[in-house]
């Protein structure tokens, strides 16, 4: 017998249909106004495998906890949360000092500083290695995408990249660097990605499983 899936539909003037799974495991379908309920139902059933894969991944990614003694892995290094004596967050060896007040916001600022250093370096190194022009990099608060590239070739990475393993960070960097040459996701774009990372498809699939990380960090 087939299990009935419960989902929420948000209709708008959008042209395409999209499926997301919230951090709480709720299935949300964003659909154009003209699509019938049956069509939406059929779309959801077609994506049943994707939904259960995402739900499994969601269960594997616990929320980021920032209490004293909690462990946090940032750019592959493990830190233990400790109480900061002042209002400023800092890292000393493997301890991550966070203030009692505004803890999540202070932690996010610290992660963003770390991310700027790490991602500037990785972007510079990979650009030099694969012949891309050097580009300015900034860190964003985005929680729906890992990276973006503006039409002027400016790259922004989400601070949440700090929670990803290095091979997936490399995929994001190459993806955004390739956008400095091709803004769309056309064939020429993917050829550029493939020239740098022949195994990009595997990395992209792995990155999808990390989507729950986007909602694992406390709201600030
Ligand atoms: Zn892209």
Query: What is the fourth-level CATH superfamily of the largest domain?
Result: Metalloproteases ("zincins"), catalytic domain
Q: What is the β-strand count? A: 10
Please give the CATH class of the largest domain.
Alpha Beta
Number of alpha- plus pi-helical segments: 6
Write the layout of secondary structure elements.
Elements: E1 7-12, E2 18-21, E3 27-32, H1 37-46, H2 48-60, E4 71-74, E5 77-83, E6 90-92, E7 95-98, H3 103-130, E8 137-140, E9 147-149, E10 155-158, H4 166-179, H5 187-196, H6 200-209
Parallel strand pairs: 1-3, 5-7, 8-10
Antiparallel strand pairs: 2-3, 4-5, 6-7, 9-10
Helix pairs in contact: 3-4, 4-5
This protein binds zinc ion.
What does this 3D model show about the protein?
The strands form 3 sheets. A 4-stranded mixed beta sheet has the order 4-5-7-6, with helices on one face. It contains 6 helices and 10 strands; from the N terminus they run βββααββββαβββααα. A hairpin with a 5-residue loop joins strand 9 and strand 10. It folds into 2 domains: 54 residues, no CATH class; 114 residues, Zincin-like. The mean pLDDT is 90. The chain is of the alpha/beta class and 220 residues long. Bound molecules: zinc ion (ZN).
């Amino acid at each position: 017998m087939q299990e009935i899936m419960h989902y929420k539909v948000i209709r708008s003037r959008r042209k395409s249909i999209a499926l997301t799974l919230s951090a709480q495991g709720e299935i949300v379908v964003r659909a154009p106004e003209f699509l019938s309920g049956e069509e939406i139902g059929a779309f959801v059933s077609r994506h049943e495998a994707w939904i259960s894969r995402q739900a499994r991944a969601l269960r594997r990614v616990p929320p980021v906890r920032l209490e004293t003694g909690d462990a946090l892995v940032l750019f592959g290094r493990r830190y233990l949360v400790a109480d900061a004596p002042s209002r400023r967050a800092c890292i000393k060896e493997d301890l991550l000092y966070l203030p009692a007040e505004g803890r999540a916001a202070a932690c996010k600022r610290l992660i963003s500083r770390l991310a700027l250093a790490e991602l500037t370096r990785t972007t510079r190194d990979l650009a030099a290695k694969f012949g891309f022009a050097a580009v300015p990099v900034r860190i964003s608060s985005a929680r729906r995408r890992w990276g973006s590239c503006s039409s002027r070739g400016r790259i922004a990475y989400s601070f949440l990249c700090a929670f990803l393993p290095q091979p997936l960070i490399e995929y994001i960097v190459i993806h955004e660097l390739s956008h400095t040459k091709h803004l769309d996701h056309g064939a020429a774009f993917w050829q550029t990605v493939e020239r740098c990372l022949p195994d990009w498809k595997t990395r992209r699939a792995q990155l999808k499983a990390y989507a729950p990380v986007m909602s694992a960090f406390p709201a600030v």
